[in-house]
Amino acid sequence: MKFVIPLIAFLFFLGFVAILVIEVPSVDLIIVALIATGLVAYDFLTSAGNSR
Hints:
- By secondary structure, the chain is mostly helical.
- The protein has helices at 4-23, 27-47.
- The radius of gyration is 13 Å and the shape is elongated.
- The two termini are 14 Å apart.
């Protein structure tokens, strides 16, 4: 269960960012969206598996 809820949150975040990038196709927005998605993915991978 510790892995499922963060995965669902990550997928919702990806969906939101994808809609934003598709509706507003700006190069600056795409760069910021890629950076933000990378940071969220890093946080998901490093903290979802820890059993602290």
